[in-house]
Structure formats: C-alpha cells, structure tokens
Amino acid sequence: MSATEKPRATTIRDIRQKKGREPIVCITAYDVLFARLVDQAGVDLVLVGDSVGNVVAGQPTTLAVTMEQMIYHGAAVVRGVTRAMVVVDMPFLSYQIDAPHAIENAGRILRETGAQAVKLEGGGKRIAPIVAALVECGVPVMGHLGFTPQSVNTLGGARVQGRGDVDEARLIEEARRLEDAGVFAIVLELVPATLARRISEQVSVPTIGIGAGVGCDGQVLVLPDMLGINEGFAPRFLKHYASLAGTVRDAVQSYADDVRARRYPDDEHSF
C-alpha cells in the first residue's frame, strides 16, 4: 500500500472469515485520540463499550450509561478510525423493551456515529427475537454472553458464568440461539476456558473472549485496564501491557514543578 492510499475498512465478512484461520484482535476505545492509536496498531475491531461508564465516568456499573453518551463516544471513535471495524454497545434498556424500540435505538447509533455494528447483551428467549428483528432490518449485531454487566444486579456481581452442568448447557443453548438469530460474532465474558472453547467449536460465528481463555476465536480487553491507567483493577484475566498511570502522574508532576519554579514556559516555548 502506498503512503497516500487509504486502507480498506474491515467488514463483517472479514471478521467472519477469520474464524478458524487467525485470531481476532479487539480493543475498546472511547475517544478520537486513542481510537486513532489503536487503529494504527492494527486491531481488527474497536468496541465502544458501555464500560465508558466505569473507566471514564467513574460509575460503579454500566447501568447509568445513556444513548446520548454512547452516540457521543461512538462518533468520536469513528472519526479516529480508518481501517478497523467499529462496534458500539447498546446501553441498558435501549433494546430490552421490545423489537421496535431496539430497532429505533440501533438505527440512531449507526446513523449518528457511523459505526458498522452494535453489541447487545444476553441470549435468552426474549433477546434472541430482538436480535433477529435488528438483523432483518439490516443492523449488524454482536452478541454478548457469560457475565453480562448490564445484569450485574441479577447475577450478584462480576462472577464467572457457566460453572455446573445446568449453566453450561444454558450458555451453549444461548450461543446457538444467537447464532440462529443472525449475530456475526459473540463476546464471551468470564466463562471457564473449557466451556468457551466448546462454544467456539459449536457455533459458526467467531467468539471474542474476555476472561474466557485462549480457545475463543479472538480476544478483547478494556484499553485503560490493559494500559495500566485504571489502577487498582487487576482481575485474574487482565494482563497489563503498560503502566501508564505512573508515567502520566510523573509527567504532570514535572510540569507542576516547572511552573512553580518558573522554568516553564522558557524562551524556547514563548513567542
């Protein structure tokens, strides 16, 4: 590719074709600057997660995140991405009520952000028909099973899901139900590795794991978590690829010291 040639945007077809061929790399982003960086790093999928409520807004759960917030952050991310595929989370109660409500909200997200797909949580008998209705209307949908953060109160916290024969069978059934409804991929969160591998082998669509072992077709992490910005958050599945909290703190401290000592701005940084 020449220096002036625009890279081809990743499509759902590209993501589907990676299953069984090469692992899919997914990362979250919430603003144009980080979106530009992760896109340049070569990820396949950028997820604008409702985790923005936790890592950006400081909320204890994702339940307070609104449609307006997801559209704002989704549009910002899309402006920074030229190659990866962008997926935006549908927030709590933006799709669970009924299919018409979900279609209206998903349409707003795609229309107002420019993203290529939405993600929603759950695979029960109520959610699957909503997924099917969205797909029938031309809205690409990524599913999400296992620990579903919007159901944190029902699940009793961030707990591993799928332990025991009954829960294992339920998750396998829900994955198949989502596959039949037309999702192009499924996130598996906090699922035992052996079960995640079984699900990945039994469905035709790619699975994207987070705390679900290496047997998934791809992996996703929350960007501030893996960069070491979100200090104090260190679940077992999380690998820190940098420790930027200290770097940022040191840089701001150096700036503050220079300002107080009148070393900044100096002649070099003045007009």
Description:
Helices cover 41% and strands 13% of the residues. The chain contains eleven helices and eight strands. It has 271 residues and is α/β, with parallel strands linked by helices. It has two domains: 12-240, Phosphoenolpyruvate-binding domains (TIM Barrel); 244-271. Strands 1-2-3-4-5-6-7-8 form an eight-stranded parallel β-barrel, surrounded by six helices. Helix 5 packs across helix 6 (127-136). The N and C termini lie far apart (41 Å).
Approximate strand percentage: 5-15%
Instruction: List low-confidence stretches.
Output: none
What's the CATH class of the largest domain, please? Alpha Beta
Which strand order does the major sheet show?
1-2-3-4-5-6-7-8
In CATH terms, what is the fold-level topology of the largest domain?
TIM Barrel
Helix content: 40-55%
The tally of domains stands at 2
User: Termini distance?
Assistant: 41 Å
**Extended strand count:** 8
Label the structural class.
Answer: alpha/beta
- In CATH terms, the superfamily of the largest domain is Phosphoenolpyruvate-binding domains
CA-based shape: globular
**CATH architecture tag of the largest domain:** Alpha-Beta Barrel
| DSSP helical segment count | 11
> How can the largest sheet be summarized?
8 strands, parallel, barrel
**Oligomerization state:** single chain
- Element order, helices and strands? HEHEHHEHEHEHHEHEEHH
Overall pLDDT, averaged? 96
Q: Could you tell me the radius of gyration in angstroms? A: 20 Å
